[in-house]
Amino acid sequence: MVPGSTSSFRRFFTLVPNVSLVALYRVLIEEQEKTQSPAADSSNTSPPEVVRRLLDDPERVKPRKSEITVLFSDIRGFTSISESLDAQELADLLNGYLTEMTRIVFRYQGNLG
User: Fold this and answer.
1) Cα separations (Å) of 89 from 10, 78, 93, 94, 97?
2) Which pLDDT tens digit goes with each residue over 33-47?
């Protein structure tokens, strides 16, 4: 027997089941994500009322010409603001701003995209 071959053999047969379990886990998770309904993914981008109406009437999802309003938003002086704050302060500022903007958009039954 070659010195160390038993150790290599054990490592190989420990590695194979571990890699197999990781691969199986990834396949199961990816399949679950593929089968999720579109409404499940929209909780952070569409108000519940809009999602409910789309689920009640799937015809609304079909492509059609319509008039829409688009909101573009900017934070004046963001570059200099971001340079003067540490990472946590900047994250807190952005979270507060985006949370309030999301509330406003949802109040008018808008979507985030």
Assistant:
1) 50, 13, 6, 9, 12
2) 666 555 455 556 677
